[in-house]
Design goal:
Elements lengths: L19 E6 L8 H13 L4 E4 L17 H16 L3 E6 L10 H16 L4 E5 L9 H6 L3 H16 L3 E5 L16 H9 L5 E4 L11 H11 L4 E4 L29 E4 L9 H11 L3 E2 L4 H12 L18 E2 L1 H12 L53 E2 L23 E2 L6 E2 L7 E3 L22 E3 L16 H11 L86 E3 L2 E3 L23 H10 L8 H15 L19 H28 L4 H28 L9 H4 L10 H7 L10 H9 L22 E5 L5 H11 L17 H6 L1 H6 L4 E6 L3 E9 L2 H19 L12 H12 L6 H4 L4 E7 L1 H6 L3 H15 L4 E7 L3 H9 L3 E5 L3 E7 L1
Parallel strand pairs: 1-2, 1-8, 2-3, 3-4, 4-5, 5-6, 6-7, 7-8, 9-10, 21-22
Antiparallel strand pairs: 11-12, 13-14, 14-15, 16-17, 18-19, 19-20, 20-21, 22-24, 23-24
């Protein structure tokens, strides 16, 4: 076939072409806006780059509906883009991805393709690209009759289009675009060899390296593909692409590619983060790299890791040794990062308004538990979706390949063996029209999915565009779908088949608080029971374990509920002495002093302007796909060390005087915990400063990531503060060392090797930190509700101290009536009854398992209290607390004529309480808890109760408890829903009560 042979029309121009260096907008998810692209062109010129490829997968006329011509309005926007690129001397490549449903042998299809590209040519475009990535390598029957192979079909069409357009700049992306997808390998791939020999020599070929996301590019690898393709490749670099995980952002420098590769390549195009404003570092450092000829002989990633490992033992916090100055031709990643941060900082000081919601521009993903490392069919690594996530519901489901667990044994928490019969049914992704408006989406459910082979699509398809009120969108598409399976389960548990009697009539708002599965929200509910119903909120530790119980903690993502023999501390079996002090009518066992309130006060005034140091910290927290930044490693290492060595605190004085002669190991632990607290505080300060940044475009792009990491770090710091109380057994490590964490055998090595695609390690540093908490919280920590607008107030959790009693009592009083105040249920002189009944016993008998939550300048907004063993707790309560309360609230009060039924019930509770929790509950769920958060705070952020629960469960687990229960009144649907959303499920009910339990 004539079109298969190479052409030489532009061969004289071959040597005149410059090294291609720039950006390909080739990710899945929300495309960039026209204004952002124009801003990009200016930056590319400023940094000495020359190319931009327009290839947003979810801009609907690029891929899903590539046949559609542009409207007049769209043409105006695209023309202005091309003109802006020319003004800044940037080569604008217009790319189409027709391979989803194209019939290569159909002359009408080729004519349609020519017509579309001719239209764009009339807009002034002089460079084009055809992309055949992320498609199934199957031909139609007609194509099989016409072409020898799939490669011949693609080459034929591409050469014909290239000749027709008569343009010197043309890019081609093969279906086998990396070594791992070459069949059977690069050198023996019939597909790649055909492309190399038959494709016109003046067409450049895109290549991602050894993998979809390649940690390293080597000279040997480039030489190998160059020989097969008969030309040096243009690297489509996915190093900074983040569209495969809504929790990962990549702000680290361009690395893993020696500048010595430059003479062997035709160019490099970075396909970076979906968030436009997150890409200054990625693009800036690539520009720096492209001007260098060699690299520094320092492997910063390895040396920094070693430095942290060694210095961490002495409690130090090592910084990477970055040279202050290097010759301009030598590339050093950390030096390049420092220069990029310096240029990025002024952008934060530009006053700009946000154009969209705080949301992650990633396609929604339906999670299948347990998470498995599938091989996705997409160039930019979108996992768990079909090749086209851009349109409507798929009619075909994607097979999940079998996973070789012997190769991934270090990844057991996120990898599992599955059968070929298991399928993943993806959800459709919205399709954007970013040329016209960042706020317009394409919707037409009647249009069939273009991924289906042999699909007959009419020449013209009406695709209406509707303005979407972006600022009013409540759902975060990058988050909610992560919990689809879980939320459906929880929602089903909330349904109560039989009629429910309400004890208090003020519950009309209840039905409005039942969250939909799609929103993925937690109901706004209090953490204490309604007092008139006589509700007791309870939770316990396992006394009769299953014979198959394990002492290994179950990590995040596990679907197995574990139990373990209860380990008691030396004081657990001792009934509390009656000789206790009283304060405000309640008894207290003194614990720690007020110094536990915080290592540093997050509410203190901080400078509102970000600094280079702040951005350096931000980049370290969100570094690279196969490498955590230095500060990220410090947090991982220090928390692990503090948790693993906490047993040194046993036997040490709880409140040593300043001149106390503590053991060296205790001193070291205390010093390192203080430094860890300061580092956590610096992250919260970064989050506060970031939230008040005047450039709201940047804030809205990145705030969700900062919010996530700040929330996780706050929980880690809260757990360290609880460890400092030393209320755990000597064998704590047998309960807190996770089986599959960053410190598990092989995990870190596998992560850093680059042998696995990065979507195997979902969540990045945020997930690695979460997995260090000694509690199986599943995806709970990934379900925090983002605020509607950036907030400088962040929630922090800390252990309860005796000076918190008044605030805790006040919160209990304000929330114990379906989250509302209960003042009208009690006479003035008996207003303290609800708190004395619901929370007083906990903070008096077991203050070591009580936590409080503070919210910025607001102060305390909630608490959680628990007891490790319900039997011991209630035995102490009956011996000490109830007698004291019986004296405080004498039985004669029942004769008062103005008492409400609720008040009478509470007084009777103190005089007639009998503990009768069923053994079936205690055997698996032996611990007890109660949780309360101010209603207005729950409305703003329903996840605050979940954070409190996480810290308390970690404390329980450190003591060998693996189950907790609560007991609510059978008619209390409000609390039933509240605890169900916190991960509790119904385990037992009788005529009066419902017991809800949770394993962890």
């Amino acid at each position: 076939m004539a079109n298969d042979s190479p052409v030489d029309r532009n061969s004289n121009m071959k040597n005149e072409k410059q090294f291609i260096c720039g950006v390909v907008e080739g990710f899945y998810g929300r495309p960039w806006t026209t204004e952002q692209r124009k801003d990009l062109f200016a930056k590319l010129k400023k940094w000495g780059m020359n190319s931009y490829v327009y290839a947003p997968k979810d801009d609907y006329k690029h891929r899903a509906y590539w046949r559609e011509l542009y409207t007049v309005e769209e043409a105006d926007h695209l023309t202005s883009l091309i003109a802006a690129a020319k003004e800044h001397e940037i080569n604008f490549y217009y790319a189409l991805s027709p391979g989803l449903d194209m019939t290569y042998s159909n002359a009408k299809e080729t004519a349609t393709l020519k017509r579309k590209l001719e239209q764009v040519s009339q807009f002034g475009c002089e460079a084009f690209a055809l992309l055949f990535d992320d498609i199934e390598p199957e031909m139609t029957k007609a194509d099989k009759e016409m072409f020898q192979s799939f490669a011949h079909a693609q080459v034929s069409v591409t050469n014909e289009i290239f000749n027709h357009l008569n343009c010197p700049r043309f890019l081609f992306c093969p279906t086998q675009y990396c070594s791992s997808r070459a069949v059977p390998c690069v050198t023996r791939s019939e597909y790649l060899n055909t492309v190399g020999s038959k494709l016109a020599q003046d067409i450049e070929i895109l290549w991602t390296g050894p993998r979809v996301v390649s940690k390293f590019l080597t000279v040997e690898g480039i030489q190998e593909i160059t020989e097969v393709l008969r030309r040096p490749p243009v690297i489509w670099d996915n190093l900074h692409a983040n569209d495969y995980c809504s929790k990962r952002l990549f702000l680290g420098p361009y690395s893993g590619r020696s500048p010595k590769l430059i003479p062997l390549l035709k160019g490099v195009l970075t396909n970076p983060n979906c968030e436009f404003h997150a890409n200054t570092v990625a693009i800036h450092t690539l520009a720096h790299w492209s001007k260098c000829t060699t690299e520094a002989n320092i492997d910063n990633a390895i040396s920094a890791d070693i430095k942290l490992e060694t210095e961490g033992d002495q409690g130090g916090f090592g910084e990477e040794m970055t040279p202050n100055c290097l010759p301009k031709n030598i590339y050093h990643p950390r030096e390049a990062l420092r220069n990029a941060i310096r240029d990025w900082l002024p952008e934060f000081q530009l006053v700009k308004e946000a154009w969209g919601p705080i949301t992650k521009p990633h396609p929604p993903v339906t999670m299948v538990m347990p998470i498995i490392p599938i091989i996705p069919s997409v160039n930019t690594c979108m996992s768990l979706t079909t090749p086209t996530t851009a349109t409507v519901t798929c009619t075909q489901s994607m097979k999940v390949p079998e996973v070789n667990t012997t190769q991934l044994q270090a990844l057991a928490e996120v990898c599992s063996t599955v059968t070929g019969s298991e399928t993943i049914q993806p959800l459709p992704n919205v399709v954007m029209n970013s040329l016209v408006s960042a706020k317009k989406i394409v919707t037409n459910e009647t249009i069939p999915n273009p991924i289906v082979s042999n699909l007959s699509i009419p020449e013209k398809i009406p695709v209406p565009c509707i303005p979407a009120p972006v600022m009013n969108i409540k759902e975060n598409p990058g988050r909610a779908k992560y919990s689809v399976v879980e939320d459906k389960e929880l929602d089903s548990k909330v349904q109560i088949n039989e009629p429910i009697e309400e004890d208090i009539t003020e519950k009309d708002e209840l039905t409005d608080k039942v969250d939909s599965v799609a929103d993925g929200k937690i109901p706004s509910a209090p953490g204490a029971s309604e007092t008139e119903a006589g509700t007791e909120v309870m939770a316990i530790a396992d006394e009769n374990p299953s014979p198959h119980s394990t002492t290994e903690p179950m990590e995040c993502g596990s679907s197995v509920l574990s139990s373990s023999p209860k380990q008691k501390s030396s004081s657990e079996d001792v009934v509390m002495s009656e000789s206790v002090s009283t304060s405000s009518g309640s008894m207290h066992v003194e614990t720690s002093d007020g110094s536990l309130n915080s290592n540093t006060d997050i509410g203190e005034d901080v400078s509102k302007e970000l600094t280079n140091e702040d951005l350096s910290l931000l980049c370290d927290l969100f570094y690279l796909p196969f490498e955590h930044g230095s500060k990220g490693l410090v947090i991982l290492n220090e928390f692990h060390w503090l948790k693993s060595n906490s047993s040194v605190l046993l036997g040490a004085p709880k409140k040593p005087p300043p001149d106390a002669n503590l053991k060296p190991e205790v001193q070291e632990w205390m010093q390192r915990s203080e430094k860890f607290g300061l580092l956590c505080h610096s992250i919260l300060v970064l989050a506060k400063k970031f939230s008040v940044c005047v450039n709201k475009e940047i804030v809205y792009d990145l705030y969700s990531y900062v919010w996530d990491i700040a929330g996780i770090v706050a929980l880690l710091n809260a757990f360290v503060k609880w460890l400092a109380l030393a209320h755990f057994p000597s064998n704590i490590n047998s309960y807190t060392q996770g089986s599959y964490t960053w410190f598990s055998k092989g995990w870190k090595d596998t992560f850093m090797s680059g042998e696995q695609e990065p979507w195997v390690f979902r969540g990045g540093l945020t997930a690695d930190l979460q997995r260090l908490l000694p509690v199986d919280s599943g995806n709970d920590l990934f379900l925090y509700k983002l605020p509607d607008a950036p907030s400088s107030n962040f929630c922090t959790v800390r252990p309860y101290v005796y000076t918190d009693e008044e605030a805790v009592y006040s919160i209990c009083h304000k929330t114990c009536r379906d989250g509302s105040d209960c003042s009208d249920l009690f006479p003035e002189h008996l207003q303290g009854i609800p708190a004395d009944r619901l929370v007083g016993p906990f903070i008096t008998i077991n203050p070591e398992f009580c936590m409080v939550m503070e919210y910025g300048s607001v102060g305390m907004i909630g608490y959680i209290c628990g007891a490790l063993d319900a039997k011991v707790f209630y035995k102490n309560q009956q011996m000490c607390w109830l007698p004291a309360m019986s004296l405080k609230y004498k039985i004669e009060l029942l004769d008062s004529p103005d008492l409400t039924p609720t008040a009478k019930d509470s007084i009777n509770h103190f005089h007639n309480f009998k503990y009768d929790c069923p053994q079936d509950v205690l055997s698996t769920y032996p611990s007890i808890m109660t949780c309360c958060v101010l209603k207005e705070q729950l409305t703003q952020d329903p996840s605050v109760a979940k954070r409190l629960v996480t810290v308390l469960l970690a404390a329980f687990r450190s003591n060998g408890s693996f189950g907790v229960h609560v007991c609510i009144n059978r008619t209390d649907r409000y609390m039933h829903q509240f605890y169900t959303k916190l991960g509790f499920s119904e385990i037992l009910q009788d005529n009066m009560r419902i017991y809800l339990g949770r394993n962890f």
